[in-house]
Amino acid sequence: MVKITDVARQAGVSPSTVSYALSGKRPISDETKRRVEEAIRELGYRPHAGARALASSRSNVLALVVPLRAGIHVPVVMQFAVSVVTTARRYDHDVLLLTQEEGEDGLRRVADTALVDALILMDVQLHDPRLPLLRTLERPSVMIGFPASSEGLTCIDLDFKAAGEACVEHLAGLGHRVVALVGSPPEVYVRQTAFAQRVVQGFTAAADRYGLASSVHPCEAASGAARTVAEQLLREQPALTGVVVHNEPLLEPLIDAFEQLGLRVPGDLSVTAICPDELAESVRVPVTSVALPSAEVGERAVELLMEKLGGTAVPEATLLPPRLTERASTGRRTA
Question: Is the pLDDT of residue 226 over 80?
Fold first, then answer.
């Protein structure tokens, strides 16, 4: 491991001079600073985090605020988190993961310390109680998700409204006239979680636009709930031929439940989903789906933060358009 004494020897200066060059605590000549910086590059020296903080007045730490509330599908959340961490490392930043549901008080406690330089927030609600504080913080922030009003904030996410529309448009194009949305767990809608609400908006708007009969069914994320909701759908909509699923753990159990009730996928029933590609591809009947671009969203969220930390203006809203991939679970309506 390269030490500060190695840098000093290479630059022809004392170790204390290298320390001053890193911390900025004492003035040194431009020529000396140049030699130190050149020695650091040649030797691949990585200053201690404390020295970097002294030199930059930053901690080189980002906070990722992900309250693990009821109804959240943790594996998908962790995909976003991995992308944030991986991208932050490219910028020589670490990530502090905050999972407790502490609301505004917890956010203020973190923001009021020198612990982090900036914040990324997930599980955004339409009327998120953290918004007033976020709009007044000196530290930059980015929200993965869109509240009802995003004015004065920086937000990024998949366009979930357009994703719901895309699934319905695909089914309508195949001739389906009766469709249903099997959505997130009920508590997700009770909290008015933004992405879930937007899927419902898009699904309903597209169904109305194409003149389709439609219904929305929140559902617990448990395999036992799949059979219950499948029976309910067929009882209430006996002509049902198209289903949109926005509930990752329920995707395969729901297909199994419909087939146990006598409906073949896609022969009798077409199924689409909003979920990660790898999940859609791994199901026994590969599912036509709108991809959940967790890697891209996490990466871009960090990039937006880095631009803000550097004083660069960024757009308030970044909506990623949906990308639908057709697979074996959808087909033309036959009856």
Answer: yes
Helices 15-23, 49-56: inter-axial angle, 10-degree rounding? 50
Say what the pLDDT of residue 276 is.
96
**Residue 303 vs residues 140, 234, 289, 311: alpha-carbon distances, Å:** 12, 46, 27, 13
The overall pTM is greater than 0.70 = yes
Whole-number Å distance between alpha carbons of 289 and 163: 9
The answer to whether 194 touches 125, Cβ cutoff 8 Å, is yes
Q: What is the pLDDT of residues 265-317, one digit of tens each?
A: 999 999 999 999 999 999 999 999 999 999 999 999 999 999 998 888 999 99
Contact 269, 257 (CB under 8 A): no
* Backbone phi and psi for residue 143, each to the nearest 5 degrees, phi listed first: -105, 130
Structure tokens at 290: 């709108």
State CA 114 to chain mean position distance: 25
Determine whether 51 is exposed, middle or buried from the number of CB atoms within 10 Å of its CB (0-12, 13-18, 19+).
middle
CA distance linking residue 111 with residue 103, whole number of Å: 12
DSSP letter for 23, please: H
Q: Are 45 and 39 in contact (CB under 8 A)?
A: yes
Q: Are 178 and 242 in contact (CB under 8 A)?
A: yes
d(CA 142, CA 35): 38
